[in-house]
Amino acid sequence: MLALSTSFVSLMVLVYISAAQSVAPIYGQCGGLTWNGLTICAVGLTCVKENDYFSNCFPLSTAYTPANAAAQAAGKLYFGSATDASEFSGSDYYYSYYLKQLRQLTPENSMNWNATEPEQGVFTFAGGDAVVDYAQSNSQLVRGQS
Q: Which UniProt keywords apply (predicted)?
C-alpha cells in the first residue's frame, strides 16, 4: 500500500482548489475579443460564442443555440426583436440576457407618435435613443418600424 505524505496530499488539494477556481461557472463569460478573464468553462459546460465580444458557458447536456446563430443557420440574415428601454433596464437578468443574443433591435412603443410628441410641439426621442444606445453597446443592428 502506498503511503502519501501530508505535504503531497496538501499540494494535491491546493491544485484541485486552484483548478476549480480558474474556470468560468455556468452562464459565466468565457471569451470575446476584449475579454481578459477566464476562458475555460467548468466540467460539463461548453463555451458558446454569442458574438465577437461575448461568449459564455452553457451545460453540455442542453441543446442550446443562441437565437441569432439559429436564425443564421436557417439561412436568415439575423434574428431581432422590438423592445423598449423599460424592458432591459430593469432587474430581469434573463430578459436582458435574451436581448443580448439578438443581432437586431427595433425601438417599439418609444418611437410611436404619442411617445415622441407627448404634447403638441414638444418632442422627445429619449426612449428610442435608449434602445439605439443599448443596441450599439451590444454590437447590434437597429431598424425602425412604421
A: Carbohydrate metabolism, Hydrolase, Polysaccharide degradation, Signal
Distances (CA, A) of 90 to 56, 58, 138, 146: 22, 24, 17, 27
Answering whether pTM is above 0.85, one says: no
CB-CB contact of 94 with 45 (8 Å): no
